[in-house]
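Read as amino acids, tokens; as here:

___
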Amino acid sequence: MIFSQQGARQVFDNARNVVSAAGLNASQAVLSQSYLRSETLVSTTVTSYHMPILVNDNQNGANTSFNTSQLLALQDAFVVSGIYIGFGNPSSNTDATFIPRTYPSAINCGGTQAAATAMQTLYNGNLTLSVNNRTILTSFPITNCYYVPQTQGLATQSSPGATPWVQIDQNDGYASATVPIEPNIVLIGSKNNVLSIQLPAAIATAPSAYARIIVIFTGILMQNVTPVR
């Protein structure tokens, strides 16, 4: 997904139009570039994942909202212009230092090739989204978000006469694995939004007990446009 000033302006203009078409009044709303980030723990026993969108979604229990999540307030709406789907492997449920990954490897999957191979299952799955009982995205292929960089991370190495150093992945955070969505999608905080991921099989080996599937929507946030106050 290539970022440009012109592209950002088009997304902004589209956001006003699609929100108005959805029956919301955007004339007094505060519009800003923003994101939503939904996370849930990797399971070795399930093939269907519910990904929370709204701040009051508690379907996943304690796994609903992490400190790195960013969910939609009931009084707001969000116009989606891009989708990222990947995974993370934090060291705890409150770790804020981990980076979302665009592909699995032994390095980013706890040091084991078995977990890296198992996480490839994610990229053979699909994502579905419905808003107010209407299906908006049907079987969006997660493989669209699979990105292996030209330069990949290696284990800690030592150069002659120097302290150890770590080679990390080449990765452009905005462009590498975020897929543009046209037409733009409107998520409305006052409506029923259901986001789910379907896998062809369970992920046989999780990178760790804290590993998560991550969905990030980029786009335009519209504050205080729904009937909820």
In short: The first helix runs from residue 5 to 21. Strands lie at 30-41, 48-51, 77-88, 126-131, 134-141, 179-188, 193-198, 212-223.
